[in-house]
# Entry
Amino acid sequence: MNNLLSGKRGIIFGALDENSIAWKVALKAKEQGASFVLTNAPVALRMGEINKLAEHCGTIVIQADATSIEDLEKLIQQSTEHLGGKLDFVLHSIGMSPNVRKGKTYTDLNYEWYLKTLDISALSFHKLLQTLKKQDALNEWASVLALTYIAAQKAFPGYGDMADAKATLESIVRSFGYYYGTDKKVRINSISQSPTKTTAGSGIKGFNEFFGFAENMSPLGNAPAEDCANYCITLFSDFTKYVTMQNLYHDGGFSNMGVSEMMMKKLEGDS
Ligand SMILES: NC(=O)c1ccc[n+]([C@@H]2O[C@H](COP(=O)([O-])OP(=O)(O)OC[C@H]3O[C@@H](n4cnc5c(N)ncnc54)[C@H](O)[C@@H]3O)[C@@H](O)[C@H]2O)c1
# Structure
């Protein structure tokens, strides 16, 4: 299917390298006729990879720390100027926990870092939505998406304080979805994605086991990043206009499983 996003303008947060989910969304959005601005934190821009993506997509990169209101204000203003009008879609593909990164377990958290985890991975979504709303930067029926993980609903030990951040993020999807939907018909959703081999994903302790477990438990297997990008495109398109305030699982069926025969066979082998 072609030109699902023809004439639409957007901002894509979180493309770090070619493994990033946001990177794949940018490629698909371009393929589907959208125009957009890429953004990431200063430290990610220093890596330089994102410039290659911008060149390929014929667009620009605007630096913004998603926890800084000032950066968000400038980003949104400059993006609407560059793109020549209000926005139709925004992707928030951001996650980082200093505690997880530095090996702090959930029962031995550094609280300053915990606040950082929440600020970067959850509150940034509220800050983004509030800034968009104050600037009236979104068109009616615009679609805003965040990426999340099932550790918001169920216990996954290695995920640490990111679980709390994701639970908050999903709550913001519902709460802001109400206000923005009522005022401006803007829709807000989160996609709960399978474990995916990216920089953020691989930072989780025991990620490979996590990945293998989900693969064995999901009837369709783990959902690849590229298919996640396809799902994002459908949610930015006009074919999903009345979907809002939802947490949508993109996980090969994992979230509705108890146990699988494949997993039982593996355990049989172990006993
Ligand atoms: N990889 C997985 O297994 C998986 C599973 C479910 C959900 N997710 C979610 O998908 C999203 C994207 O992650 P990914 O897997 O593509 O990994 P990634 O590491 O490629 O992307 C994470 C991005 O967050 C950006 N970021 C960090 N701090 C920031 C800040 N202060 N301001 C702006 N940007 C900042 C990073 O620069 C990076 O581009 C995250 O929300 C992640 O939690 C990932």
Remarks:
- The mean pLDDT is 96.
- The CA atoms of residues 14 and 40 lie 6 Å apart.
- Strands lie at 9-13, 35-40, 61-63, 87-92, 138-148, 187-193, 247-250.
- The chain has one domain: 9-270.
